[in-house]
Amino acid sequence: MIKQKVALVTGASRGIGKTVALGLIKDGFRLALVARSAENLQAVASEIVELNLDADSQPLLFPIDITQRDSVQTIVAEIDKIWGRIDLFFNNAGTWIEGTLDVEIDELDRIFSVNLKAGFYFLQAVVPIMKRQGFGQIVNLVCITAKGAEPDWGIYSASKYAFFGLTEAIHFDLIKYGIKVTAICPSWVDTNMAQQAATPYPSDQMIQKEDILNTIRWLIKMSPKAAIKEVVIDCISEYVREK
């Protein structure tokens, strides 16, 4: 009997992570959901209950600080102990800050801790499981700023450049183990973070969270011989101007 596939999703309590989690549970995945807020994670779990799926669909919830390496290692080990596999890792958690040379050192450290080091910690813990399996799909949510820095977003852009570089390297490193690694680099997505960053577009003119979900679904459906290094998703509104 084929065991039910397992997905680990970080930043799962809202925005893109929540949308992806709800989509994957409908697709038959078991879920391990990670976020800082226990209350928000429980709210996502309640939405899953309302979908009236079977008992095996109840997610594992891990409210942790992802910048703490010991916590990351502990929860990944627990997922492995309970389910014995991780088929998909959606490395989604991240944060945003405005500024470049004017950013305080503690804020610089915080951004790189969340946007780079936390993802690195998860990869260190997840990849050995996938190597043991001989397969796995890792999807790192990066950002369009990893392909070209934005003015006044220097530190955020730098953190995403670094995360993209890590993703590109392990894409090539892990192919021989049957592990596929993809960077998704979207422009403006309709999220709270976009509002925080003062997006110039209304919700219906931005990339939708479901677009990220459907990109992941597309990646999963690729044949074993196809590995996608990166997917760039542009927001059409940036290029279309009213006449």
Please characterize this protein's 3D structure.
- With 243 residues, the protein is α/β, with parallel strands linked by helices.
- It has seven helices and seven strands.
- It has helices at residues 15-26, 38-50, 69-83, 105-133, 154-174, 192-196, 209-220; strands at residues 6-10, 30-35, 60-63, 88-91, 136-141, 179-186, 230-233.
- The chain has a seven-stranded parallel β-sheet, with helices on both faces.
- Helix 3 (69-83) packs parallel to helix 4 (105-133) and helix 4 (105-133) runs parallel beside helix 5 (154-174).
- The longest helix is centred in the middle third of the chain and has 29 residues, at 105-133.
- The protein is globular and about 50 Å long.
- The N and C termini lie far apart (59 Å).
- The relative contact order is 0.13.
- The mean pLDDT is 92.
